Request: fold
Amino acid sequence: MAKSSSRTALRLRLMHGDRVAMGPGKAELLECIRETGSISAAGRRMQMSYKRAWQLIEEMNACFRVSLVEASRGGRGGGGARLTPIGADVLERFRRIEQACAEVGRDDLASIRHQLERTTHT
Reply:
């Protein structure tokens, strides 16, 4: 059997109405903001524009009752960004749900992955 060059994986998305409140990319952005203290640095780390990073933050903040990210304006000392306590909690819970889904679905995903593999006929 020829193995597919693409990776088969589950990707969890938390929907709020028709909007993605949290997904793998937004979770990664939150992690990068937590690590760097900066939206622009987080965006650069993810090879994303500052504008796109802000759009994702605004989407998340609009979905939740409390903002997940707080930013301070630049200036003499420079600006910065940090996760709010709710932002840190949502990120931690989202990552736990991802891990639980991966563990529960491991065998079924392996079976599906096998069904996705194509045989080569010569």
